[in-house]
């Protein structure tokens, strides 16, 4: 099933943080039903949810989506550090480019839909492909 590895990583995040589905949901600003749907495989987290996990729990977006690279941010980076924000943007752009070129059409389609939902009015997908 596409996304089954993302499901495993969401469960891993909850376990490492010692959070229930409800507490994780509250921390990242989604409903507990969303987290339940992700973990059961009924749905995948969208771009905004992944961004919120990254911002609130410090997990790398690249790692969340692909399982590659370090799972958490370098401890020397501070949340409001301008360098961090530039590196996060570069990381998100790199991940997005890779996912839009993935051999799995479902992943390419999901990526495009999620990106357009989150940022379409500001930055069309065609500009980064």
From TrEMBL:
Pfam families xrefs: HTH_3 (PF01381)
GO MF annotations in UniProt: DNA binding
Record key words, sorted: DNA-binding
Alphabetized PANTHER family for the sequence: HTH-TYPE TRANSCRIPTIONAL REGULATOR XRE, TRACRIPTIONAL REGULATORY PROTEIN-RELATED-RELATED
Occurrences of domain HTH cro/C1-type (ranges): 10-64
Protein name (Swiss-Prot/TrEMBL): HTH cro/C1-type domain-containing protein
InterPro entries: Cro/C1-type_HTH (IPR001387), Lambda_DNA-bd_dom_sf (IPR010982)
UniProt cross-references to PROSITE patterns, sorted A to Z: HTH_CROC1 (PS50943)
Any coiled-coil regions, as ranges: none
Disulfide bond among keywords: no
Keyword DNA-binding: yes
């Amino acid at each position: 099933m596409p996304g089954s590895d993302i499901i495993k990583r969401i469960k891993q995040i909850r376990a490492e943080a010692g959070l229930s589905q409800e507490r994780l949901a509250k921390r990242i600003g989604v409903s507990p039903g969303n987290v339940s749907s992700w973990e059961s495989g009924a749905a995948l987290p969208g771009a905004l949810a992944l961004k919120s996990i990254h911002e609130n729990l410090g997990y790398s977006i690249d790692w969340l989506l692909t399982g590659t690279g370090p799972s958490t941010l370098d401890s020397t980076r501070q949340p409001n550090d301008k360098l961090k924000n530039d590196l996060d943007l570069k990381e998100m752009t790199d991940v997005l480019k890779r996912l839009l070129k993935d051999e799995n059409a479902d992943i390419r389609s999901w990526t495009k839909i999620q990106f357009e939902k989150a940022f379409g009015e500001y930055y069309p997908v065609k500009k980064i492909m």
